[in-house]
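FAQ: What does the model actually see?

It sees only this:
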Amino acid sequence: MTGDPAATTGARRKGGVKARSAARLAAVQALYQIEVTARPAIGVVKEFVAHRLGTETDEGDRLIDADRLFFTELVVGASDRRAEIDTVIAPILSADWPLERLNSILRALLRAATFEFLSRVDVPAKVVINEYLDVAHAFFSGAEPGFANGVLNSLAHRLRAGEFGA
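And it is asked to produce this:
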């Protein structure tokens, strides 16, 4: 994993990141926190809204404020539907790399994206893929973004086949 994901995604650039992009990045962080701490989603959402979204970093840079409603929908939805989402992701993965073996951040990213594929049909699948690839690049500098791209493309074609034609 790399350093500050906000810096990597350009969230510290003035006007550079849209509120929904910031919400996706924060949602992955929140889902990670939920998994490692076993805290309820709504408590983590409240913490992020109160103390993390649109706040200043230790370096004094102001982060782009996330779309709070979208952030909440992603975190609560992916958390509430985690078992269902995991059954959607699992068949895409190889037997050598089941979901439980993946890095926790990568699991959180795949869960958030899958929730968005399932629940936000107003957002084109290609947008979901591109947005979560940006998130993957924010957290990883190795092979993980390529792995995420392959899984996200497979999920998109399976869940939103109509958007990709014949």
